[in-house]
């Protein structure tokens, strides 16, 4: 008996799915080399930005502890930008040094709008090599900036490093989709963990070199630039696209309209900025030793490193959307409990470990969620770029809003409630 039309359609669909899976290597030297290269990009880009942004926000609000949280802001406030205001975070119209880190972090996210579009059109190599060169050059230029020249540091660190890292980020993540489909979640989770490891390494390195009397600001920044430049060169040599650029391109307006349903998930990521930027300040204000408070961010990122790896090793039946929902709920609970936990050293350390772990787990699911919701990989670069641009916007305006809610009287329940509610949107 001849097969029915429905049976033929089911057989054709099954055959197409089988052919699609076999077209992805799901491993191999070139595939894992691309993952390693992407990891190094996150290590040099996001890892650096997250640490600088966090300590700048802390020191802007509580400049008494600049010695404990030196890194860049210590030199900006006390040596390099002494004529610039270091006002409270609610003064969004003033140009305090903290906006250097704010704009840099925003451009890393928002740069995906441009780089994602260009990646889909086949400009992978110009984006990766150009972004690496701009990022490294800007760091070396930063070491030559003169004291009290705000515009020089803003151009080098905020615009130069921000644009360079932003140009690289989306292509370095999207290229992984050329090699993996069934194991795409694992392959994308590994690189995102690089930002946490980078935050830990850069924090310890910069805090020690910037305060070394024999090195000084310029030498310390050049050492950091050399490390970043060398790692980015290795990353460029490791990453190569496997598939040719698509012949047809999804219109930008259509991509944005399809992405509207994903906006709440992207904005929820911004809620994690509150403990990332304010945990040390809240701990110190509640009587925790400042030297212990310094390492809360290191612990937060260290535990986040393992949290970002875990989703890739969970069974496939636990979808990334379910993992994101669970982890965001746990983060919301911990943020809302921060008022009580921040009053003791044990509470702060417990919060740093657990919130860092689940926060990292939630953050790392974002690229795989976008990949799952993208019907084909031809438009993946643009969709990742749109998603991270939304995250960048939330990160740019979220901390100032939280700072305005906090006020100079340090009313902690207001920003805590605001951030906790955002975590469950």
UniProtKB/TrEMBL annotation:
Q: What membrane topology does the annotation report for this chain?
A: Multi-pass membrane protein
Highest taxon listed in the record's lineage: Eukaryota
Tell me what this protein is called: Major facilitator superfamily domain-containing protein
SUPFAM superfamilies xrefs: MFS general substrate transporter
In terms of PROSITE patterns, this protein maps to: MFS
* Any one annotated GO CC term: membrane
Q: State the family it belongs to.
A: Belongs to the major facilitator superfamily. Monocarboxylate porter (TC 2.A.1.13) family.
Query: Compositional bias of type Basic and acidic residues: which residue ranges?
Result: 1-10
Which parts of the sequence are annotated with region: Disordered?
A: 1-20
> Where do transmembrane segments lie in this chain?
31-51, 123-144, 150-174, 186-205, 217-238, 259-280, 323-342, 348-373, 380-401
Q: Where is the Major facilitator superfamily (MFS) profile domain?
A: 250-425
InterPro entries reported in the protein's UniProt record: MFS, MFS_dom, MFS_trans_sf, Proton-linked_MCT
Pfam families (UniProt xref): MFS_1
> Where does this protein come from, organism-wise?
Roridomyces roridus
The protein's location, in the record's own words, is:
Membrane
């Amino acid at each position: 008996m001849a097969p029915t039309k429905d049976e033929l359609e089911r057989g054709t669909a099954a055959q197409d799915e089988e052919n699609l899976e076999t077209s992805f290597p799901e491993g191999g030297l070139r595939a894992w080399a691309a993952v390693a290269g992407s990891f190094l990009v996150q290590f040099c880009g996001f890892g650096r930005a997250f640490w600088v942004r966090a300590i700048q926000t802390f020191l802007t609000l509580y400049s008494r502890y600049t010695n404990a949280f030196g890194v860049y802001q210590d030199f900006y406030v006390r040596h390099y930008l002494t004529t610039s205001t270091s006002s409270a975070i609610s003064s969004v119209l003033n140009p305090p040094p903290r906006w250097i880190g704010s704009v840099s972090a925003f451009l890393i996210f928002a740069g995906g709008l441009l780089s994602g579009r260009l990646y889909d059109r086949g400009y992978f190599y110009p984006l990766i090599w150009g972004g690496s060169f701009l990022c490294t050059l800007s760091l070396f230029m930063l070491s030559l900036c003169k004291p009290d020249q705000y515009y020089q540091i803003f151009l080098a660190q905020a615009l130069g490093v921000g644009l360079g890292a932003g140009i690289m980020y989306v292509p370095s993540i999207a290229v992984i989709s050329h090699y993996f489909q069934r194991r795409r979640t694992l392959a994308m989770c590994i690189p995102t963990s690089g930002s946490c490891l980078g935050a830990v390494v850069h924090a310890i390195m910069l805090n020690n070199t910037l305060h070394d009397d024999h090195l000084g600001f310029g030498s310390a920044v050049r050492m950091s630039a050399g490390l970043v430049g060398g790692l980015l060169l290795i990353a460029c040599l490791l990453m190569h696209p496997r598939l040719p650029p698509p012949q047809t391109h999804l219109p930008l307006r259509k991509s944005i309209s399809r992405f509207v349903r994903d906006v709440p998930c992207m904005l929820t990521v911004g809620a994690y900025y509150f403990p990332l930027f304010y945990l040390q300040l809240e701990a110190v204000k509640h009587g925790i030793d400042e030297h212990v408070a310094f390492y809360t961010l290191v612990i937060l990122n260290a535990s986040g490193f393992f949290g970002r790896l875990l989703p890739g090793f969970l069974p496939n039946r636990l979808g990334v959307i379910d993992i994101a929902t669970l982890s965001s709920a746990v983060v919301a609970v911990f943020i809302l409990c921060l008022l009580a936990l921040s009053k003791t050293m044990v509470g702060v350390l417990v919060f740093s470990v657990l919130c860092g772990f689940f926060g990292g787990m939630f953050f790392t699911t974002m690229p795989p969620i976008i990949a799952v919701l993208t019907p084909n990989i031809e438009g993946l670069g643009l969709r990742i770029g749109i998603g991270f641009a939304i995250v960048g916007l939330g990160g740019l305006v979220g901390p100032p809003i939280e700072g305005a809610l906090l006020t100079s009287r340090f009313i902690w329940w207001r920003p805590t409630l605001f951030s906790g509610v955002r975590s469950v949107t």
